[in-house]
Amino acid sequence: REGRGKGERGRRGGREGGGEGEERVGARCGWLTVHSKNDGGRLGVTARKKRGNAVHRDRARRLVREAVRRIRTQMPAGYDYVVVARHTIFASSADELQPELLELAHKATT
Fold first, then answer.
1. 38: which of 15, 17, 18, 26 lies 20 to 30 Å off by Cα?
2. Beta bridge mates, 32
3. With a cut of 70, which residues of the chain have pLDDT below it?
């Protein structure tokens, strides 16, 4: 398509907020934190098709959502979060993910 340079994304693949925010990468997931224009607290979870079939990707999303639900009160307020599942997440449990997600949240907001 014309008008898009290398690395530019369309509406579905772009980030809300014009690319502002902090990125961090952990052993099991990637993390993007964006200052929220409202009260914050939104969570987006994604897993690429490269990471497995729909069953595996859905399991990864459920694991992340459950881990974040458990640590929500300890996470910094006023931010929106996007978590990108990595291939190592499939061998994990929500209990194992909690410390990593909390650490990534604090690193990205400080």
1. 26
2. 23, 82
3. 1-20, 27, 31, 40
